[in-house]
Amino acid sequence: MALFIFFLIMLLNVWAAGHALMYKRDPRTAWGWIVTCLLIPTLGPILYYLLGINRIKTRAKKLKAEPLALTQQGRGAPQSTLTSRVLVQDVDKFHSNLRAGLTDKLTNRPLLGGNKVHVLFNGNQAFPEMLAAINSARKYVYLQTFIFESNNWGMRFVGALSQACKRGLDVRVLVDGIGELYSWPKISRYLKRAGVPFSRFLPPKLIPVSPFLNLRNHRKMLIIDDMMGFTGGMNIGDRHVVDYEKSKGAQDIQFQFKGPVVSQMKDVFMEDWSFCKGFHLPTRDSGHDLQVFGDAFCRTITVGPNQDIDKLRMLYTGMVSQAKSKIIIMTPYFLPSQELLGALQVASLRGVEVTIVLPEKNNLPFVHWATRNMLWEILQYRVNVYYQPPPFDHSKLFLVDDEYCVIGSANMDPRSLRLNFEMVVEVYSKRLAAILYSHVEQKIMSSRKLTLEEVDSRSIPARLRDSLCWLFSPYL
Question: Strands 384-388 and 170-176, how do they pair?
């Protein structure tokens, strides 16, 4: 009997290692799981079963309706006058169209003009504007977030959502199943008590054990009445209200949109809502009949471990390759793929000014240490790296030249690039780019520039720690 159990365990280990070998696309990830499965009997395969297998791919494709209305407006079909205008005025049109053409091939959503983008810094500015939008809603309020805290600001949102329900509006709240656990008591208790319809994305289960623990919905958005939308990297809670004098809170940027792109944000929310509820979507709205508010051209881009895997990595790499003068990346977590790392190196060699702004003190130390292990690869090619002082900055910006911006929920790490469900918005707008460049320049003025000498002078214990964390970076 003991011999039979031994052979059964060995068979399980070999099966798990073979599955990782055949289906893992990243060599480091595959090696990590193979070693784990072979060297840690029983526990290794169990961990791989829970965290390593992407079971959501089939389920997501099954539940996600094909956007027929948008597909018919693809490259082979005429688009409305709204999307056929010149992309960006007073700019090399061929250069702009190259960028737009790349994203056309990565997404089935058209680039929509007529949008206005307003920048909101920290919860200090964003939360009052979002609450005012909820209070002024007339038809519906759709809110999606990764973390929804049950503290002061979180309860203000619950109150506003409850009042919207009492006014007879269509109110829906979607919270990630793991993100909900960041705050206790859970926000779902208060939403249920207030009569606010809500759903949780892949909530963890013990019986039976949920196999989706490693797949999270990291998207953040608020959509109001087809007229206004908010997105960015900001969760809901007191942590995003910043006190600079005490260096408390997490800095972040939220963006308010008015215009046709709001319809695309609504589509993304409804896809996730239908995924959680288990029903098919109706044909989606093209957004062409919505009111024009400004001159920004925008498009939502969804990424995740279903059919959208690697889309964001390809977008970033392509845009870096097309950059002419400057690239700015601001992110709390910087663990880019080797392809993107190589593109940044080549861009710097081509004479493009590449600047990366990171927090000096990270809320996830092991990610900070893993990043330190690979920064020499870009510092040696004269890429500018700055560490900004506390309070911790959670902002996510990707800026190219003087017109192109990618904003949203995605970080530049393996979790955002491959595991999380994320939504970003690409924006062609000189006005927005100027505002964000000015913001980054102000941050750089108070930041410390990292040098190759500093990285090379790390002690041996620090190098070992950083290298070990980097080794596990595909799982961070």
Answer: unpaired
